Amino acid sequence: MTDVAQREQATTVAPEKLIGKRRAGDRFFLGLSTTAAVSIMVILAGVAIFLILKGLPAITANWETNSDLAGYQNKNWGSFWNYVAPLLWGSIWSALIALVLGAPVAIGIALFISHYAPRRLASGLAYVVDLLAAVPSIVFGLWGVIVMRPFLLPLAEFLNQYFGWIPLFQGPVSSTGSTMLAGGVVLAVMILPIVTALTREIFLQTPRLNEEAALALGATRWEMIRLAVFPYARSGMVSAILLGLGRALGETMAIALIISPSLLFSVAVLTDGYNSQTIAANIANNFPIATDLQRSALIGTGLMLFVVSLAVNMIARGILGRSDRKARTSPKIGKRV
């Protein structure tokens, strides 16, 4: 036997031993990944069970006769559902304002990064936008109180003077700026990272064949985007916007610091003291001073917010999953860097 053959024989691993090692590694990582996936489901179920058990006493209580709940927060509600309804409206209303203000800007930023900006500028801008997600909400709240509230006062006066016939801009203009408009602007900035990041990735997945075909037929850059990119990315854009909605629904400290709320149904965005309170901010403001049953009521409102946020995120993930399946089945020529 030659020296080469001896060395090959010495370094050769038996196939059954190699297969055994691979199978052991596969089993380990399969168990690890399965444990991680199951733990997420267990945590989510645990949160849901906690909210149900802790909120059920107030949900089923008689709010007219109970001393802790009758007249809670200076109003006779009659039932838990009457109490949670204006809070749920305030959460949804502030989130919708944030979407109307922030979603177009986020989509514009994503479009600029993916199709217009030079490569170096696009990378830097994408990094800066992603950094916004790392800013704590309390910092956004302080920024809103110190900067945005006085900054928006001239705009509020202008809207009230010339567009006061619209219900959104009716009522006395706040002199402090503690309005839903200021809260919506801050929430719009806070949802920019998630909406921008998702729409940017969807835009980058557009098949190059579609874009090059549109340009070859004489389309301008904007016409190519309108005819090739937007139709392909429509479901992904909707999913990103819904995820931004879920982010805005659960915001607490920024809204708690900025607006001057009341427990009522209102669409006014320029008034002070007539802004609809959100569930998260209401819990943060009242939980430390609440009695046991009042805390149960606050946890019950948190359960309603949990259900709404979960439904919004499930819808968004479903739409995004459909977009991913479409991306995998679409023909591609190359990959944009």
From TrEMBL:
* Location(s) in or outside the cell: Cell membrane
Annotated membrane-spanning segments are 28-53, 87-113, 125-145, 181-204, 252-270, 297-320
Q: Which InterPro entries match?
A: MetI-like (IPR000515), MetI-like_sf (IPR035906), Phosphate_PstC (IPR011864), Phosphate_Transport_Permease (IPR051124)
Pfam families assigned: BPD_transp_1 (PF00528)
Q: How does it sit in the membrane?
A: Multi-pass membrane protein
Q: Keyword set for this entry?
A: Cell membrane, Membrane, Phosphate transport, Transmembrane, Transmembrane helix, Transport
A Gene Ontology annotation in the biological process aspect, one of them, is: phosphate ion transport
| MF annotations from Gene Ontology | phosphate transmembrane transporter activity
**The ABC transmembrane type-1 domain, residue ranges:** 88-316
What's the protein name?
Phosphate transport system permease protein
Q: Which gene encodes it?
A: pstC
